[in-house]
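[job 0412] stage=complex_fold ligand=3,4-dihydroxyphenylalanine status=START
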Amino acid sequence: MLNKLKEIANNSEKWLSQAGSIDEINELRVKVLGRKGEITQVLRGLKDLNAEERAGVGKIANELKEKLEDMISSRTQDIKGQELELQLARESVDISLPGLPLQRGGKHPLTLINEEIRDIFLTMGFSVAEGPEIESDYYNFEALNIPRDHPAREMQDSFYISEDILLRTHTSPVQVRTMEKIAPQIPVKIIVPGKVYRRDDDATHSPMFTQVEGLVIDKRITFGHLKGTLMLFAHKIFGEDVKVRYRPSFFPFTEPSAEMDISCVNCKGAGCRVCSHTGWLEILGAGMVDPRVLQYGGYDGEQVTGFAFGMGVERIAMLKYGINDLRLFFDNDKRFLRQF
Ligand code: DAH
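[job 0412] stage=complex_fold status=DONE, emitting structure tokens
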């Protein structure tokens, strides 16, 4: 029996020193200390010995049992420690790796153009005015010399909230709103950027789009001021080599009225698909403020004169950047937006 105990001791120590996992140690625990384990067996056999031997062997067996329990638990701790180290090593963060780049947004092309247009007019001494997008029939039409039933209303069909309230169809109502605030003082020299709404929807028309309005009122303002101001604007935004021409036109709120064309930015005037083979591109409407509109705003057309203009920002952006579908501005496709 003593030999058997010695054998158990030797085998167990060897096993423990070779064990590489908690499972292997548990296997040993069952094999040696378990209910049917080797030491348990020895202890059960004690009853067949005489009293003297029983005491001796029993003591040794119990000591071995305790010793093995200690060894098993300390080896278990060792292995757990090793496994933890391994796990930590596997999961460690390499702080020398470069980080993931932050995805930075950029300005929308319409914002860029709006800022460019604004800056050009600010350097010419204009200031920025704004007005409501939900507008009354009075400011959107009536005070701009477009009475009810006037055929000019047909070109600007809109979204009506009630018979007298609508989403504004242009930024021109801010002309009269501003005049009312400033009159009878002079000068008035403003631009009005903002969203406008019409019942239109195709590759070059959107139900919501952006305009910039301009208004100058002072003593002895002439058509020459209009031409000089807008030519400077065209050169600043499309380049010095661009040519400008004015064609007679009609707007109820200006007299005389004109449309300004620039030489085609695509073919430089030779004629191409972009300019419908005319060599020219229409970019804005303008004119001398009709005396009736001045009167609605609180000015006397005998004392002061003024010019006004209005342009579509999307159109300017399309021509400047060579974009052929207006809907791209509102699709929020990053592949498009990233290019600006
Ligand atoms: N409001 C006009 C439109 O949306 C554009 C316009 C034309 C504005 C001539 C003006 C102007 O101020 O003088 O079609």
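The two ends are 91 Å apart (CA to CA).
[job 0412] exit 0
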